[in-house]
Amino acid sequence: MILLRVFGSEQSESITLLLDAACGIVAVLAAVLLFPNLRNSAKIQVGVLFTVGAVLLLYAYSQGGSFSLVNALSRNTVLLTMIMSVGFLKLLLDLEPTKGLLPRGPKAHLNTLISLGLFGSVINISAPIMMCDRLAEEQPVDLFTARSMTRVFCACSSWSPYFGGTALILTLVDNVSLAAVMLTGLPLLLITIVVTHVVALYKHKERVDQFAGYPLAPSKLWLPVALTITVVLTQALMPSLPILVVISFSALLLSSGVLLFRLGLNKGGRALQNHITTGLPRSSNELLLFLSAGVLATGLSAYLATSNFQITLSEYTLSAACLTLAAMIVTAAAGIHPVIQISVLTPLLLPINPDPELLAMTYLFSWGLGNAASPLSGTHLIFQGRYGISAWQGAVQNWPYVVPMYFVAIGLMALLTWLS
Question: Full-prediction pTM beyond 0.85?
Answer without folding.
Answer: no
